[in-house]
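Run log, item B.
One chain of 82 residues. Sequence copied directly from the ordering sheet:
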Amino acid sequence: MTDESSLDSPALPGELARQLEALGGQLVWRIGKDEASEDVVVRLGFASATPRFAHLPRLRSAGDQELQAALDGGRVVIEWVD
């Protein structure tokens, strides 16, 4: 019996996997296209930063094909929201 995550990446040591899972549970993110460019923006921050997301410029929704094209073209911007 295998789980889906074991098919995509090498197995992580148990404690590291638990710590990463706990960290992931504390994060929020938004993904969309920047209104001023064709870049896809990934905004990421701790849940405590959620109110600050509302003060950032809006992101337009992006479909799977647009996301894949941005990844393939190197037009992905990661923003950390503090």
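Observations after the first pass:
- The two ends are 40 Å apart (CA to CA).
- Residues 5 and 11 are 8 Å apart (CA to CA).
Flagged for discussion on Thursday.
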